[in-house]
Amino acid sequence: MTFGTARCAWREPGGLRVRVLRRVASLHGHPAHPLAPQLPLALGGADLVHTHQLRSAPGRLAALAAAAMRRPLVSTDHGLGGGGWGGMLPALVDRFLLVSEYSARTLRSPPAKTRIIYGGADPDRFHPEPGMSRDGVLYVGRLTPHKGVDRLLRGLPARARLTVVGTGGHDPDPPERDYPELLHRLAAGRDVRFAGAVPDAELPELCRRAAVLVLPTVTETCYGRRVGITELLGLSLLEAMASGTPVVASRVGGLPEVVRHGETGFLVAPGEPAELHERVGQLLGDPPLARRMGAAARADVLARFTWAKTAERCLAGYAELLPALRGSSGAV
What we know:
- By secondary structure, the chain is of the alpha/beta class.
- The protein has two domains: 39-120 and 308-325, Glycogen Phosphorylase B (Rossmann fold); 137-304, Rossmann fold (3-Layer(aba) Sandwich).
- The protein contains twelve helices and 15 strands.
- α8 links the parallel β13 (212-215) and β14 (247-250).
- The longest helix is centred in the last third of the chain and has 18 residues, at 287-304.
- The model has no long low-confidence stretch (mean pLDDT 95).
């Protein structure tokens, strides 16, 4: 179930049923807090309720509905803040299915109730193309200060080509509001292309054409602000790795759970342009090394980080709460 301006429903080819509930408003105008009073009724008949963002307005309403129906409640957190009703809200959760060990530490979820399901990439959509030439550096993500794109620009090796995929507009107040302008100033005179929000269909080719993808997330922004929660997982890394592209990422949050330093890419100290310069330059200057790391990166995604693997781990968590699922083929 999800939310929109009008009610509708459809079934995906694989059997997934999607139901859009009409949103009557959004709490505080925030898109993560749609208000849909019909949600408790819509959950009637569910064997299990799985919320994403427990602290969102619909997540809270769904938690209360599950408790009233005496149905198991499962939750996956994606970093949304907010209160927990003095501990009462997380106490309603039977299983936390979280995207990283870092997420579990951040949420302080009880270990006995916590399972790590990670997230994934589609290896059929994101894959290397034999014989395709690779060139340049790729960044994919929001243009917001904690992503550290300014550090990447400062550390970019001379004559390296950089493609920046993503948009700003996420920070309403100065000075963060002007962060995209800062990035354009830092890029002046360099071979840097700001591609904006590219269509989904174009992203796989960008990943497979890049020589290296960089995720330079910081723990303190260029404006001196500390970052409370950094990267819970790093899906852009997984999509690049599935494409056979080595990665350079900051050693923050859940990223060390994704990147095997020296095998599938490099981990660097957050906020250090010099170290970014060294590692990016190393991969650009040594194509055989980049190919070996890219091949190892794809192999690691196939072993640990496909959406099928995530679904298996998710269903295993469900089966702990729904005995009828144990030993089943995974159909629900």
